[in-house]
Amino acid sequence: MKATIDPIVWDYAKDNNLMIVSKDADMHDLSLVFGNPPKVIWLRLGNCSTSQVENLLRQNFGTIKSFYEDESLSLLALS
Question: What is the pLDDT of residues 27-36, one digit of tens each?
Fold first, then answer.
């Protein structure tokens, strides 16, 4: 079922000018194949809490902002 949901999420993000934040390697693969939009932030974390994800995103706010503003970039991996 997951494989059928990924293209739906991808198309929704593309159509609505959204970024995808995911731990899923499939989103990484879609980004490499199709480029942007949408942009993908790939969280390279193992099993972790929501709080750990939040902290990672907050600690990398400047990097994420620069990534968002650079139209040539399609994938940002954070760990």
Answer: 889 898 998 8
pTM above 0.70, yes or no: yes
Q: Into how many domains does the chain fold?
A: 1
Please tell me whether residue 41 adopts helix, strand or coil conformation: strand
Q: Which two tokens stand for residue 14?
A: 């593309």
CB 50 within 8 A of CB 21: no
Distance of CA 44 to the CA centre of its chain: 10
Helix extents (H) in the chain: 2-15, 25-34, 50-59, 61-69
Report the alpha-carbon distance of residue 16 to residue 27 in Å, rounded: 17
Cβ(39)–Cβ(76) below 8 Å: yes
Containing structural domain, residue 68: 2-78
